[in-house]
Amino acid sequence: MLGLLGDEWTLLVLQQALLGATRYGDFRSGLPISDAVLTNRLRTLTAEGLLERRVYQKNPPRAEYLTTPRSRSLWPMLVSIWAWERRWVSDHVPALPAMRHTACDAEFAPQVICRACGEPASDKDVVAQWGPSGTWARSIPAVTTRRRSGSAEAGMFPQTMSVLGNRWGFAILVAAFVGFSRFTDFQTQLAAPPGSVADRLSIFVANGVLVAADNRYRLTEKGRGLFAVIITALQWAQRWFEAPEGPAVELAHTACGRRFTAGLTCDQCGGRLRGSQVARS
């Protein structure tokens, strides 16, 4: 998951695909992206089963890129990103549209619940531990991803992309959620280059996701608001990249004492959300 989604251009291309882009020109006009980078990301996403390449014209050859069950099941993560940006990032120009729940026809924000008990859940009552296939070393991809260059305003979720669109950044944020706070802990546990850790921590502090005090980096309320993004990304990864020996991470909901699986509900009507029921307002 980090290898695929820990890349800003990949996230932006998937975002456009889930918003309806299918042809090369759609992606090219919707993103400030070079032909070489777009071609590379489309090829990778097709090879990984996130997009399906379908030829619609033979002379001259033309193809479209369609979403698959694997990419469509990313909707909880992208909806969570959308909600977080609307709540915490006020400088979008133009402003991000609100989300409408078509089942109740109300503007809404998604709420995380525990599927086992149906009650609201947050990072304060969800406990994580490594499962049979989980370690920090195994969870960090060896491939190096490059930060997206160009306008910081590209895409619908520019601040989320600057926070999560990097494999080390995503891992550091997860580590912060499970209790890491010192620079040396992030660096040694993740076996990350010190420069990469320093760069990511400075971005988190600048964006108000972490606050630095007493030689520690702690999550702010804005940072804790990313819980829904992290947990939905984790569930997507464990669904589509299952290890033979078992899950990488095991979650428990302390409020009910059972295994935790996240669900999203509408904060207006309380109904369970479906991707097909989420629209721009």
TrEMBL record:
Coiled coil: none annotated. GO terms for molecular function: DNA binding. PROSITE patterns: HTH_HXLR. The keyword tRNA-binding does not apply. Keywords: DNA-binding, Transcription, Transcription regulation. Residues 1-93, 154-245 form the HTH hxlR-type domain. The keyword DNA-binding applies. This is Transcriptional regulator. It comes from Mycolicibacterium agri (Mycobacterium agri).
